[in-house]
Amino acid sequence: MPRYALLVEYDGTPFVGWQRQENGLSVQQVLEEAAAPLNGGATPATTAAGRTDAGVHAEGQVVLIELAADLPPERLREALNFHSRPHPVSVLGAARAPEGWNPRFSSLGRGYRYTILNRPARPALMLGHAWHVPRPLDVAAMHAAAQGLLGRHDFSAYRAAACQARDALRTLDRLDVSRHGELVEIRTEARSFLHHQVRNIVGTLLAVGQGRRPVSWPRAVLEGRDRTRAGQTAPAEGLCFLFSRYAEALDWR
Protein backbone atom coordinates (compact mmCIF):
# COMPACT_ATOMS: atom_id res chain seq x y z
CA MET A 1 0.00 0.00 0.00
CA PRO A 2 1.26 3.52 -0.77
CA ARG A 3 2.63 5.24 2.33
CA TYR A 4 2.58 9.00 2.79
CA ALA A 5 4.03 11.45 5.27
CA LEU A 6 1.88 14.44 6.19
CA LEU A 7 3.00 17.76 7.68
CA VAL A 8 0.10 19.00 9.80
CA GLU A 9 -0.77 22.07 11.83
CA TYR A 10 -3.75 22.32 14.16
CA ASP A 11 -5.37 24.35 16.88
CA GLY A 12 -5.65 21.89 19.75
CA THR A 13 -8.36 23.83 21.61
CA PRO A 14 -11.42 21.79 20.51
CA PHE A 15 -9.72 18.39 20.59
CA VAL A 16 -9.14 15.73 23.25
CA GLY A 17 -5.60 15.46 21.86
CA TRP A 18 -3.95 13.80 18.89
CA GLN A 19 -4.99 10.25 19.74
CA ARG A 20 -8.47 8.80 19.21
CA GLN A 21 -10.50 8.61 22.41
CA GLU A 22 -14.06 7.69 23.26
CA ASN A 23 -14.76 10.89 25.18
CA GLY A 24 -14.42 13.39 22.33
CA LEU A 25 -13.04 14.41 18.96
CA SER A 26 -9.33 13.96 18.28
CA VAL A 27 -7.04 15.28 15.56
CA GLN A 28 -6.34 11.69 14.53
CA GLN A 29 -10.05 11.05 14.01
CA VAL A 30 -10.44 14.17 11.86
CA LEU A 31 -7.56 13.16 9.57
CA GLU A 32 -8.57 9.52 9.30
CA GLU A 33 -12.18 10.37 8.50
CA ALA A 34 -11.02 12.96 5.96
CA ALA A 35 -8.92 10.26 4.28
CA ALA A 36 -11.68 7.63 4.15
CA PRO A 37 -13.23 8.95 0.87
CA LEU A 38 -9.77 8.56 -0.72
CA ASN A 39 -9.49 5.00 0.58
CA GLY A 40 -12.62 3.37 -0.78
CA GLY A 41 -14.59 4.45 2.28
CA ALA A 42 -12.36 2.52 4.68
CA THR A 43 -10.79 4.47 7.52
CA PRO A 44 -6.99 4.25 7.25
CA ALA A 45 -4.68 4.10 10.25
CA THR A 46 -2.32 6.96 11.08
CA THR A 47 0.74 7.35 13.30
CA ALA A 48 2.09 10.68 14.59
CA ALA A 49 5.51 11.87 15.69
CA GLY A 50 4.06 13.43 18.84
CA ARG A 51 0.89 12.36 20.64
CA THR A 52 -0.13 15.80 21.85
CA ASP A 53 -2.53 16.17 24.78
CA ALA A 54 -5.89 17.94 24.85
CA GLY A 55 -5.48 21.66 24.15
CA VAL A 56 -1.91 21.37 22.82
CA HIS A 57 -1.31 22.87 19.38
CA ALA A 58 0.98 21.90 16.50
CA GLU A 59 2.78 23.81 13.77
CA GLY A 60 4.69 20.84 12.38
CA GLN A 61 3.17 17.54 13.43
CA VAL A 62 4.37 14.69 11.20
CA VAL A 63 1.97 11.85 10.40
CA LEU A 64 2.20 8.55 8.50
CA ILE A 65 -0.84 7.37 6.56
CA GLU A 66 -1.31 4.31 4.33
CA LEU A 67 -3.88 4.33 1.53
CA ALA A 68 -5.09 1.79 -1.00
CA ALA A 69 -4.93 4.35 -3.81
CA ASP A 70 -1.74 5.81 -5.26
CA LEU A 71 -2.22 9.59 -5.33
CA PRO A 72 0.13 12.46 -6.15
CA PRO A 73 1.15 14.01 -2.81
CA GLU A 74 -0.19 17.45 -3.73
CA ARG A 75 -3.58 15.95 -4.58
CA LEU A 76 -3.63 14.11 -1.25
CA ARG A 77 -2.87 17.35 0.58
CA GLU A 78 -5.66 19.23 -1.17
CA ALA A 79 -8.19 16.42 -0.69
CA LEU A 80 -7.47 16.07 3.02
CA ASN A 81 -7.82 19.81 3.53
CA PHE A 82 -11.15 19.74 1.70
CA HIS A 83 -12.58 16.79 3.65
CA SER A 84 -11.32 17.96 7.06
CA ARG A 85 -13.27 21.21 6.96
CA PRO A 86 -14.47 22.98 9.14
CA HIS A 87 -12.11 21.62 11.80
CA PRO A 88 -8.98 23.68 12.65
CA VAL A 89 -6.64 21.14 11.05
CA SER A 90 -4.52 21.90 7.98
CA VAL A 91 -2.24 19.60 6.00
CA LEU A 92 0.67 21.84 5.00
CA GLY A 93 2.43 19.21 2.92
CA ALA A 94 2.40 15.59 1.81
CA ALA A 95 5.27 13.37 0.68
CA ARG A 96 5.88 9.76 -0.22
CA ALA A 97 7.24 8.04 2.87
CA PRO A 98 10.55 6.17 2.58
CA GLU A 99 10.43 2.40 3.05
CA GLY A 100 10.57 1.48 6.72
CA TRP A 101 10.11 5.08 7.82
CA ASN A 102 8.03 5.78 10.93
CA PRO A 103 7.30 9.33 12.14
CA ARG A 104 7.69 8.36 15.78
CA PHE A 105 10.54 5.85 15.84
CA SER A 106 12.57 7.38 12.98
CA SER A 107 12.62 10.80 14.64
CA LEU A 108 16.04 12.16 15.58
CA GLY A 109 14.62 15.05 17.57
CA ARG A 110 11.46 16.94 18.42
CA GLY A 111 10.91 20.59 19.23
CA TYR A 112 8.31 22.38 21.34
CA ARG A 113 7.55 26.01 22.14
CA TYR A 114 5.74 27.16 25.25
CA THR A 115 4.27 30.67 25.20
CA ILE A 116 3.51 32.86 28.21
CA LEU A 117 1.62 36.14 27.79
CA ASN A 118 3.27 38.31 30.44
CA ARG A 119 1.16 41.44 30.87
CA PRO A 120 -1.55 42.67 33.27
CA ALA A 121 -4.41 42.56 30.73
CA ARG A 122 -5.98 39.19 29.99
CA PRO A 123 -5.63 37.81 26.43
CA ALA A 124 -8.14 38.26 23.66
CA LEU A 125 -6.37 37.39 20.40
CA MET A 126 -4.09 34.88 22.13
CA LEU A 127 -6.83 33.30 24.21
CA GLY A 128 -6.25 29.55 24.20
CA HIS A 129 -2.72 29.92 22.82
CA ALA A 130 -0.72 31.24 25.77
CA TRP A 131 -0.55 31.03 29.55
CA HIS A 132 -1.53 34.41 30.95
CA VAL A 133 0.81 35.49 33.77
CA PRO A 134 -0.03 39.07 34.83
CA ARG A 135 3.03 39.99 36.93
CA PRO A 136 6.47 40.65 35.37
CA LEU A 137 8.79 37.67 35.05
CA ASP A 138 12.57 37.65 35.39
CA VAL A 139 13.35 35.95 32.09
CA ALA A 140 17.12 36.04 32.61
CA ALA A 141 16.73 34.07 35.85
CA MET A 142 14.42 31.57 34.13
CA HIS A 143 16.92 31.03 31.31
CA ALA A 144 19.82 30.60 33.74
CA ALA A 145 17.81 28.05 35.72
CA ALA A 146 16.88 26.20 32.54
CA GLN A 147 20.54 25.58 31.65
CA GLY A 148 20.88 23.35 34.71
CA LEU A 149 18.46 20.88 33.13
CA LEU A 150 20.37 20.35 29.88
CA GLY A 151 21.94 17.00 29.13
CA ARG A 152 21.04 13.41 29.97
CA HIS A 153 19.29 12.94 33.31
CA ASP A 154 16.62 11.01 35.15
CA PHE A 155 13.66 13.38 34.75
CA SER A 156 11.38 11.57 37.23
CA ALA A 157 10.68 14.88 38.98
CA TYR A 158 9.28 16.31 35.74
CA ARG A 159 7.19 13.42 34.44
CA ALA A 160 3.44 12.97 34.86
CA ALA A 161 2.25 10.51 37.48
CA ALA A 162 0.50 8.57 34.70
CA CYS A 163 3.55 8.55 32.39
CA GLN A 164 3.91 5.09 30.82
CA ALA A 165 7.55 5.37 29.73
CA ARG A 166 9.73 2.48 30.95
CA ASP A 167 12.28 4.85 32.47
CA ALA A 168 12.72 8.58 32.98
CA LEU A 169 16.15 8.94 31.35
CA ARG A 170 16.02 11.64 28.68
CA THR A 171 18.55 13.94 27.01
CA LEU A 172 17.50 17.59 26.84
CA ASP A 173 19.41 19.22 23.98
CA ARG A 174 17.94 22.71 24.21
CA LEU A 175 16.00 24.73 26.78
CA ASP A 176 15.97 28.46 26.10
CA VAL A 177 13.83 31.18 27.69
CA SER A 178 13.51 34.53 25.91
CA ARG A 179 11.29 37.60 25.91
CA HIS A 180 9.66 39.10 22.83
CA GLY A 181 7.74 42.12 24.05
CA GLU A 182 4.82 40.83 26.11
CA LEU A 183 5.57 37.23 25.18
CA VAL A 184 7.92 34.91 27.03
CA GLU A 185 8.90 31.86 24.98
CA ILE A 186 10.42 28.62 26.23
CA ARG A 187 11.87 26.53 23.39
CA THR A 188 13.11 23.02 23.96
CA GLU A 189 14.45 20.14 21.89
CA ALA A 190 15.10 16.47 22.65
CA ARG A 191 14.95 13.15 20.88
CA SER A 192 11.90 12.32 22.98
CA PHE A 193 10.04 13.72 25.98
CA LEU A 194 8.21 12.24 28.93
CA HIS A 195 4.50 12.84 29.41
CA HIS A 196 4.01 16.42 30.69
CA GLN A 197 7.79 16.92 30.88
CA VAL A 198 7.78 20.26 29.08
CA ARG A 199 4.77 21.61 30.95
CA ASN A 200 6.18 20.56 34.33
CA ILE A 201 9.51 22.20 33.54
CA VAL A 202 7.75 25.41 32.51
CA GLY A 203 5.73 25.47 35.74
CA THR A 204 8.94 25.04 37.72
CA LEU A 205 10.80 27.76 35.82
CA LEU A 206 7.86 30.11 36.38
CA ALA A 207 8.46 30.00 40.14
CA VAL A 208 12.03 31.18 39.47
CA GLY A 209 10.80 33.96 37.18
CA GLN A 210 8.40 35.14 39.87
CA GLY A 211 11.22 35.30 42.42
CA ARG A 212 9.64 32.63 44.63
CA ARG A 213 12.51 30.20 44.08
CA PRO A 214 16.26 30.59 43.40
CA VAL A 215 17.94 29.86 40.08
CA SER A 216 19.40 26.67 41.54
CA TRP A 217 15.99 25.20 42.45
CA PRO A 218 14.97 23.46 39.17
CA ARG A 219 18.29 21.56 39.17
CA ALA A 220 17.79 20.57 42.82
CA VAL A 221 14.30 19.32 41.96
CA LEU A 222 15.77 17.30 39.08
CA GLU A 223 18.32 15.65 41.37
CA GLY A 224 15.66 14.89 43.99
CA ARG A 225 13.57 12.89 41.46
CA ASP A 226 10.38 13.72 43.36
CA ARG A 227 7.51 15.10 41.26
CA THR A 228 5.74 16.52 44.33
CA ARG A 229 8.64 18.94 44.90
CA ALA A 230 8.51 20.50 41.42
CA GLY A 231 6.33 23.36 40.26
CA GLN A 232 2.82 23.21 38.88
CA THR A 233 1.99 21.70 35.50
CA ALA A 234 1.69 24.61 33.07
CA PRO A 235 -1.63 24.75 31.16
CA ALA A 236 -1.81 22.85 27.88
CA GLU A 237 -2.89 25.92 25.88
CA GLY A 238 0.59 27.47 25.83
CA LEU A 239 2.30 24.42 24.34
CA CYS A 240 2.92 23.90 20.62
CA PHE A 241 4.62 20.98 18.83
CA LEU A 242 7.01 22.63 16.37
CA PHE A 243 8.81 19.90 14.45
CA SER A 244 10.16 16.38 14.21
CA ARG A 245 13.56 15.94 12.55
CA TYR A 246 14.66 12.97 10.42
CA ALA A 247 17.86 11.70 8.83
CA GLU A 248 16.27 11.73 5.39
CA ALA A 249 14.58 14.93 4.18
CA LEU A 250 10.99 14.51 3.04
CA ASP A 251 9.92 15.99 -0.30
CA TRP A 252 6.91 18.00 0.88
CA ARG A 253 4.41 18.93 -1.81
UniProtKB/TrEMBL annotation:
The keyword Zinc does not apply. Residues 8-105, 145-246 form the Pseudouridine synthase I TruA alpha/beta domain. Substrate binds at Y112. Its EC number is 5.4.99.12. Keywords: Isomerase, tRNA processing. It catalyses: uridine(38/39/40) in tRNA = pseudouridine(38/39/40) in tRNA. GO terms for biological process: tRNA pseudouridine synthesis. The active site is at D53. GO terms for molecular function: RNA binding; tRNA pseudouridine(38-40) synthase activity. The keyword Cell membrane does not apply. It is an enzyme of class 5 (isomerase). It comes from the Bacteria. Belongs to the tRNA pseudouridine synthase TruA family. Formation of pseudouridine at positions 38, 39 and 40 in the anticodon stem and loop of transfer RNAs. NCBIfam families: hisT_truA (TIGR00071). Homodimer. This is tRNA pseudouridine synthase A.
